[in-house]
Write a structure and sequence with these properties.
Elements lengths: L1 H19 L6 E8 L6 H17 L2 E4 L2 E11 L4 H13 L5 E3 L4 H14 L3 E3 L14 E3 L4 H15 L5 E6 L3 H18 L5 E7 L7 H10 L3 E3 L4 H13 L6 E3 L6 H7 L7 E4 L9 H14 L5 H20 L4 H9 L4 E3 L2 E3 L11 E7 L2 E8 L2
Parallel strand pairs: 1-3, 1-4, 4-5, 5-6, 7-8, 7-9, 9-10, 10-11
Antiparallel strand pairs: 2-3, 11-14, 12-13, 14-15
Length: about 375
């Protein structure tokens, strides 16, 4: 009788569990997908700063009248494409995040693309500017501009502001971001100069290289008016430093990856005068959110934030707002609301996503002056 009684009790408990359905989640999980080690760690750390700051200021989200705590699940993609795919898989399969934020490095974001698409988990890129991140992937979005625009901005600066007629490209050939941005600069520069021979050479190096004597010897021989060197912050700073040591005084231009403390630390005095495009300047706050972000960041860190830190802040806010609009923790519904993002006031400017999930944003041009990043101009799309 006792055995029958316990058996009946067990059946009753199971019936109750099935009647109630699965337990509701206690938190909303934001997967933070960034390089925290490896060649891109400096950039990943800057984006994580912005995400964490947003989480401190806006730690909850309200769905169906219930307030949920937003939990950050941080995954290190280790600056490696294979590790990036593995990290993304863990976030969607094991951690069961509701949304993914990141990554610094377009190649890393592209490695995660098929995984978030298959899992139907929305991802918000922060500073990944290669068009292929979002192309054909209805689950990947971004809060930054794209490389075709960035390449045009810097080619225009070279041709119009510097009066350059001839250029040399030195690119990080193992980096999709660098290769793509170089191509857009080349295409635009040729069009602006009206000269298909305006690019004297396109020289390559690999991620992690430290000796650029061969490439710089070629550059010295060509005597260009400008050198466009889009690449990771460490290698780019070493290239400029070694160029100056060889007596090359030609202006160097680059992209958004240069705006890290490591670029200044490695390059030191050699990178004075280097000019690059980026996403945001603290000198020209754009929205009320810009002011909230800047005040909170300065109070917490007692320094000025990098542009990608503002983008990390914005990616978090866009995802949070989409959940509140969806009034659901269903990932497809969250994805649909992210896609509708329009005139959203972010720290780095107003965010409107186009049909590809890309933000239509202005670009900022900065230079290195007195060992610091200094604002030069804003360029509208």
């Amino acid at each position: 009788m006792k055995r029958i009684g316990f058996f009946a009790l067990g059946l009753a408990v199971l019936a109750l569990l099935f009647a109630c359905g699965p337990a509701a989640p206690k938190t909303v999980k934001f997967g933070v997908f960034e390089p925290l080690t490896g060649a891109n760690a400096g950039g990943g750390a800057l984006e994580v700063e912005g995400i964490k700051l947003a989480n401190e200021l806006y730690p909850t989200v309200t769905v169906g009248g219930k307030e949920y705590k937003i939990e950050l699940v941080i995954a290190d993609n280790k600056s490696d494409k294979v590790e990036a795919a593995n990290a993304a898989q863990r976030l969607v399969d094991k951690d069961k995040v509701h949304v993914v934020l990141g990554s610094w490095g377009s190649s890393l974001s592209m490695a995660a693309g098929p995984i978030v698409k298959q899992a139907k988990t929305p991802a918000v890129g922060l500073s990944c500017t290669n068009p292929l991140v979002t192309k054909g992937n209805e689950y990947y979005f971004r809060v930054c501009f794209l490389d075709p625009f960035q390449g045009t901005v810097m080619a225009t600066y070279a041709a119009k502001e510097l009066g350059a007629k001839k250029a040399v490209i030195i690119r990080e050939v193992s980096n999709d971001y660098s290769v793509g941005l170089a191509k857009y600069f080349v295409d635009s520069f040729k069009q602006l100069t009206g000269d298909d021979a305006s690019i004297l050479a396109e020289l390559n190096y690999n991620t992690g290289d430290t000796d650029f004597a061969a490439q710089l010897t070629e550059i010295k021989k060509f005597k260009p008016d400008v050198i466009f060197a889009p690449g990771n912050f460490t290698e780019s700073a070493l290239i400029i430093k070694q160029a100056r040591e060889l007596g090359i005084k030609t202006p160097f231009l680059g992209g958004d990856t240069w705006e890290t403390p490591e670029f200044l630390d490695v390059g030191k005095a050699a990178v004075e005068g280097a000019v690059f495009s980026t996403f945001f300047a603290t000198e020209v706050p754009i929205t009320e959110t810009s002011k909230v972000f800047l005040d909170a960041y300065r109070q917490k860190y007692n320094k000025e934030p990098a542009a990608v830190t503002a983008l990390g802040f914005d990616g978090y806010l866009v995802a949070r707002a989409a959940i509140e609009k969806a009034q659901s923790l269903d990932k497809v519904k969250i994805r649909d609301e992210i896609a509708k993002t329009a005139n959203f006031p972010g720290a780095a400017g107003m965010i409107t996503l186009d049909a590809e999930g890309d933000a239509v944003k202005s670009a900022v041009i900065k230079t290195v002056k007195d060992g610091k990043f200094s604002y030069l101009a804003t360029v509208q799309p």
